[in-house]
Specification:
7-stranded antiparallel sheet; 4 helices; alpha+beta; 164 residues
Length: 164
């Protein structure tokens, strides 16, 4: 299988598997409830997840938008830990941009990173924040060459995501 075709299967798998990873120190993550969000528009469609969180994949580019939450008691990861968890699947990680911004009435960290999955260069945009004893990572990812083509959809997603 050509590397370009393999990445179409690997990137969604990585992001899908990352949705099963606990964020912080929680062994049994408890997904957030009562979230307000607007699901990404077509060509994005629901990507099945075994957790209470959600992910959507683009039929056009295989870019993925997802969120991962954890409201487990006695967990309080730092923004550094949340960011590291979201980017942990990338080899040879290069942080292209990192800043702290106001988001959902809290301080959030936005991070854009590039790295390799199976030798193919991918790019992730991550918004990490904590609110009312819950931790969140909102993630957009894709092959570098296709990343920008649907980044506006992630911007729309983050603008409409409301944690209780």
């Amino acid at each position: 299988m050509k590397t370009t075709h393999r990445i179409f299967f690997l990137l969604p798998s990585l992001l899908f598997l990352s949705s099963c990873i606990t964020i912080g120190v929680s062994k049994d993550p408890q997904p957030a409830k009562n979230l307000e969000l607007k699901e990404p528009a077509s060509p994005f469609s629901n990507l099945k997840s075994k957790t209470g969180d959600k992910a959507w994949i683009s039929s056009k580019t295989n870019n993925v938008i997802s969120y991962i939450s954890d409201c487990s008691p006695n967990q309080d990861p730092s923004l550094d830990q949340l960011e590291q968890d979201a980017l942990s699947g990338l080899e040879k990680l290069e942080i292209k941009n990192r800043e702290e911004i106001p988001y959902n009435q809290r301080i959030a960290r936005t991070t854009i990173g590039e790295g390799l999955i199976d030798g193919v260069k991918v790019k992730l945009n991550v918004v990490s924040f904590k609110k009312n004893a819950c931790s969140y990572n909102l993630i957009y990812g894709g092959v570098v060459e296709r990343f920008d083509s649907e980044s506006q959809e992630f911007k729309n997603f983050t603008e409409n995501f409301r944690a209780p």
